[in-house]
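Working notes for the structural subgroup meeting. M.R. asked for a predicted model of this chain before we commit to crystallization trials. I am recording the input and output together here so anyone reviewing the notebook later can reproduce the run.

Input as submitted:
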Amino acid sequence: MISRLFVVAGTFVLGALALPAASLAAGGPKPGAIVTSTPMQLTASLDAVATGKRITYVSTDPSGDPIVVSGAVLTPRPQIAQAHPDNATRTVAWAHGTTGVADQCAPSATDHLDLPPYDDYTRVAAGYLSQGWTVAATDYPGLGTPGPHPYIVGESEGRSVIDSVRAARDLDPTLSSKWVVSGHSQGGQAAIFAAELANTYGKGLDLRGTVAIAPATSIDVIAPALVGTPVQGYLVMALAGLAAVDPSVQLEDVLAPDALERLGVLESGCFDEVMAAFSELSPDELLVGGAVSDALVAKFAASNPGQEAPNAPVLLVQGSIDDTIPADFTRLFQSQLCGFDQPVALSQYAGADHINILPASQDDVHAYIRARLKNVPAPSGC
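Returned structure, recorded in token form:
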């Protein structure tokens, strides 16, 4: 029997159990508690190195209210764990890039974690598993579970990443509290937010390092610059993400009629469909007034990573010809993070774009994670 967990009028419901939401702090289901767990049929390359479970687990939204998030936990096969005994109790939290905002865009719904535009996430997960690490892969809130996905809302992402590690430990009590977070694109932003929350929301876990690959930063600069480009579907998803957590943001007041007519694609499609639906709209066809208002820019700024100190060393990874997250943004972000008391390294890869940065950097990322988990002093470019 599959239990169901949801909130109705301030009540936390798990199966037949109904508790006030406030009871989470008084012995009720805690963040990271498993709600459902079912075996995953994995694609061949993952099946060779891991077994998997598709899970839903308790997390909280930025207001602290309980929610349910979906994801996957992949466990290295015994022969791999035995070959890497020091790694076998450690967890890598994997934070994925933009796939869309609808339930069918949840990576855990696949047998391989790949969804357009990313076709290399299977290899990324298999790489971590081949080192003996357990992989906790959140879908983020609203992808695979009821409710809207607060796309690019950093605190929402960071909480779900942290709670995915707790969920992995709930499934496997042999896992230690030591973990590393690694994310790409949207997931790079999520990884930094998880690092910022690690000593407060993530109390009880021991974050050793943070890897942010082509991370989404300077959201308040990128969002308005998307207007009039073929990828302004990113902006529509970001506006919908704001509306999911901020009642003052009403899409009917922000999007122009032509854009509103296409809004259903956010539920019916994923990345490719969303990009195609909005790509040819002029600024005036996309937005009321043809531009992102100053008030919305200020709201996007709240999800800029790097406003608080990360609680573990950071590795930023960037391709030189990335036209989704330009290298200048990541170099600027490193300079911002260097204002905090934490080692921050930047690895740049000539000729790598937003997608092939993943295989280009994989060996170096593995080496960085191994060193952090062994408590070797972290490199820094500050």
